[in-house]
Specification:
The protein contains five helices and seven strands. With about 170 residues, the chain is an alpha/beta fold.
Length: about 170
């Protein structure tokens, strides 16, 4: 069972979802708030809900539900929605191979770039990005912590959290 939650740093936000649909909903709200060029680094163990989150994020960016799936075998998928979306899944790569993948081009693009298993490339990520940690809390519950690492990401997280309170789910 996961330990008690440590205090959050300033500007970080933590929510708990009770189903994969709520996890997708949070991702969708984030996708709707994105303006382009965001880098979203997802971190969490296998089964923590990263791909569900990405499915919702893609939907919020106007990507067809049939498109947004885990690219575990392709490593990188590019989608067209209201803006370009790049979905990277580093699960099958070790840190050295992940760093040789050539992600710099995506990280400097106007696309929304979301990276599953981003903890494999900490030195490659720019200082300014949104780190999202997902943790399985039993049954279908997930704890999701958003760490905005710049003022623009703080605004983005604020907007997402405000929309979560207005919609009444997930719990904050």
């Amino acid at each position: 069972m996961p330990s008690e939650n440590p205090p959050l740093p300033e500007f970080a936000s933590r929510l708990e979802t009770s189903s994969s649909l709520e996890t997708e909903d949070l991702g969708e709200r984030l996708g709707r708030a994105c303006r382009g060029g965001e880098i979203i680094a997802l971190v969490g163990p296998l089964g923590a809900g990263k791909t569900s989150f990405v499915r919702g994020l893609a939907r919020g960016l106007g990507v067809s539900d049939q498109c947004a799936a885990s690219p575990t075998f392709a490593l990188i998928h590019e989608y067209r929605g209201r803006m370009p979306v790049v979905h990277v899944d580093l699960y099958r790569l070790d840190a050295e191979a992940a760093n040789r993948l050539g992600l710099e081009e995506y990280l400097e693009s106007p696309a929304v770039t979301v990276i599953e298993w981003a903890d494999k490339i900490p030195t490659l990520l720019p200082r300014d990005h949104l780190r999202i940690e997902l943790e399985h809390r039993g049954d279908e519950r997930r704890q999701i912590t958003l760490f905005p690492l710049s003022a623009s990401y703080q605004t983005l997280v604020h907007d997402v959290m405000r929309s979560a309170r207005h919609r009444g789910a997930p719990s904050a």
